[in-house]
Design a protein that fits this description.
The chain contains 11 helices and 7 strands. The protein is an alpha/beta fold. It has a single domain, classed as 3-Layer(aba) Sandwich (Rossmann fold). A 7-stranded mixed sheet has the order 1-3-2-4-5-6-7, sandwiched between helices. Helix 5 runs antiparallel to helix 8 and helix 6 crosses helix 7. The longest helix is centred in the first third of the chain and has 14 residues. The chain is globular, with a radius of gyration of 17 Å.
């Protein structure tokens, strides 16, 4: 196994002439996609991986300077594409994974054919007329809680993110994913994720893009989707009538329908 494949625990599934590359959101590893991959593997070649510090990745490859911004994570996406000799990639990114994918497409647009974003947000902080969903102090308090008690934070944050209290098993699965992260790296990645502001980068992305948002999402409210749709030159916005920030887990059928319809168009 090559270094990059080992570093990110890269797995390639399925077959087909088109390649889907999945970019996980914060706190998640590649197992988060398991509700979608069975239906997609018969039509597409699927590439899954873990960010350094998550899942079964090589935690010794973590470089604080490189990963102090989302650009470092975007470089990993480009590295994986080059290592696997990928082209005309359809990138599927969730949450901050969408912004990582956007930055990769800005850096190397020739690699990517389409961008499919689930619950993306370029900035989580409310600022002026922009509504990102959180006051800065709220995020600082959350990060302080993580520093003090990572397991306690994960136990509270997983149900908040999943947003489906009638299905506690979904939050339990996300909690398990959180706990498969290296805590020190996860705390640093959380700071990068929730304090990043990529609003100025959005207009630089010219790859055809699908934005999938949830009607009730405490992490990325509807105003964020409207902001992105107005500024991404080639975006289409779809709002699923569901709750939570992980529709690929809580509403996989609706999510699959949206993704497949866009790819087929």
């Amino acid at each position: 196994m090559t270094y990059i494949r080992k570093r990110h625990d890269v797995h390639v599934l399925g077959s087909g002439s088109r390649t889907l590359l999945f970019v996980n959101g914060f706190g998640c590893d590649q197992t988060i996609w398991h509700y979608l991959t069975p239906a997609l593997s018969g039509q597409f070649r699927l590439v899954l991986f873990d960010h350094v510090g998550a899942g079964m990745s090589d935690v010794t490859a973590y470089e604080p300077a490189k990963y102090s911004s989302l650009e470092g994570y975007a470089q990993d996406v480009v590295d994986i594409c080059r290592e696997l000799d990928l082209s005309n990639v359809t990138l599927v990114g969730h949450s901050v994974g969408a912004m990582i994918g956007m930055l990769a497409a800005i850096a190397e647009p020739a690699l990517f054919e389409q961008l499919l974003f689930l619950c993306p947000s370029p900035c989580y902080v409310n600022e002026g007329s922009y509504h990102g969903g959180f006051e800065r102090q709220d995020i600082q308090d959350m990060l302080a809680f993580m520093d003090q008690d990572f397991v306690g934070w994960a136990d509270e944050f997983a149900p908040f993110v999943m947003g489906n209290p009638d299905q506690p098993a979904l939050a339990a699965g996300l909690l398990h994913s959180f706990c498969r992260n290296d805590p020190t790296i996860a705390k640093r990645f959380a700071r990068v994720t929730f304090l990043s502001d990529n609003r100025a980068d959005v207009g630089r992305c010219h790859t055809p893009c699908l934005l999938v948002q949830c009607a009730r999402d405490l992490i990325a409210p509807l105003e964020v989707g409207s902001f992105l749709a107005a500024r991404l030159p080639t975006a289409r916005l779809i709002t699923l009538p569901v709750s939570g920030h992980c529709p690929h887990v809580s509403a996989p059928t609706e999510t699959l329908e949206a993704l497949e319809a866009y790819m087929a168009a």
